Amino acid sequence: MEQTTRTPTHAGLMDFRAWLHELERTGHLVRIADEIDPQTEAGAIMRLANERQSPAQWFTNCKGAMKGATLLGGPFATKERIAIAFGLPPDTPHSVVTDVFADGLHGKRIKPEIVSSGVCQEHVLLGDDVNLDLLPIAKLHPQDGGPYIGTLNIGVCKDFDSEWVNWGTYRGMKHDKKSTGLWLGPLNQGGQILKKYRAADKVMEYAMFFGGDPMHNIVASSSVPPGVSEVEVVGGIRGEAVKLVKCKTVDLYVPANAELVLEGTVSPGDEREEGPFGEYPGYVVSGTNPRPVFRLSALTFRSDPILPATCLGIPVDDAMMWVLEVASSVKEALRAKGVPIVDVAVPEFSGCHAVVVSTKTPYAGIPQLIASISWADRNASYFPYVIVVDDDVDPWNLGEVFHAICTKCNPVRDIHVYPGHINSPLTPYIAGHPLREFGAGGGNVLLDCTWPIEWTAAQRPHRLAFHNTYPEAVKEKALANFARWGLQR
Fold first, then answer.
1. Parallel, antiparallel, or unpaired: how do β-strands 154-158 and 253-255 relate?
2. Contact at 8 Å (CB) between 182 and 170?
3. What is the pLDDT of residues 157-183, one digit of tens each?
4. What is the pLDDT of residue 179?
5. Span 229-259, pLDDT tens digits
6. Could you give the angle at which helices 230-238 and 94-105 cross, rounded to 10 degrees?
7. 3 state DSSP class of 444
8. How far apart are CA 366 and CA 333, in angstroms?
9. Buried b (16+ CB within 10 A) or exposed e, 334-351
């Protein structure tokens, strides 16, 4: 893969394994050959690696798994790994990655190509031969209700009364060798589709796949609107149709180059206790609840299948996909409305709860306009904190943002609270609310860290930062010699 350009590689689908080899080549993935127990050890290693921003972990010797089956931890847990998935150099600035993502989400669509066979069906287990115990499914946190196979999966289900097929990331706890739980709740698209089947007392066919193009995971976790095909969005980003193959036992289609595919059904009234599970905000908050059961009719996989997983917790982890997607989506929404923004960031350490926007303020009400547009975005509607800073603050730099909050946000005038807004069901501070799964119990807040519009240039204190304080010639000399002087870290 070309590493000297900042232009994304759209043409040609990227196979999951090709991406992993590129991560390994660039130092963003390591193989662990020691025997590791997925039930007790893998999650701890993943969590420590996430907290230290270590390379992704490819566990090639998993206790209890069938020969050749391996476990992959944290492949999407850094911006660098996601940049590589887009065909960009790993050191691509965050703002460039979000621009590329925004272009892809709102760009052209390419319909998938149906093929007769694929490596995802090199091995086929049907009926009683289906056995999830063959796979290195990890119990990621000691507090989890069981091993979770569905953390970096893509769930596939067809709308009840249209031709739309939804791809989404819906967690799945392993119940036994032939069934998993599913969190298809009232606020996600999969749950809204399932509600239609239940209202008609019909069985819903379902598939869960892993791997293929890493763009599948990135797009499936994004804010693609209901009725829009995620697979067509992936095709548009790559500039080539995604190749799909029909499942063996259900009328659904999955990527021909997927690593693993689970096929089956979700029946009306078929529920089982699921959870708890340590989720992306960094807490165990979802509890144990009766949730739909996904009963498997087939398990297909390519030779030596790789099962990707994420051990969620205190940031940073694979929720990084959502961080970049929300930043991209909000950036595009604000630009479409003509808001004079400079950049948009979602700080990874917010636990996917804050959007930061740097802007110019040519007239009054810009921060309020930014907040209202951000909360109208489907995924950013779950982000209760909107922080607006002036254009001399880098929204990706948490130190600069915190400094702006503490020195420019007047605690009497500039903090605007909006009770009753929808929050994520996984937001820890609404964990005890009876309608938590519907997003009730919280609210939103705008922190306006811009200078008042009525202040003149002379009234606005000068911010003492390197980039806006010194003459260009002085800055250029300092930057050019910084490393030679031994100051580079």
1. unpaired
2. yes
3. 999 999 999 999 999 999 999 999 999
4. 98
5. 999 999 999 989 999 999 999 999 999 999 9
6. 120
7. strand
8. 14
9. beeeebebbbbbbbbebb
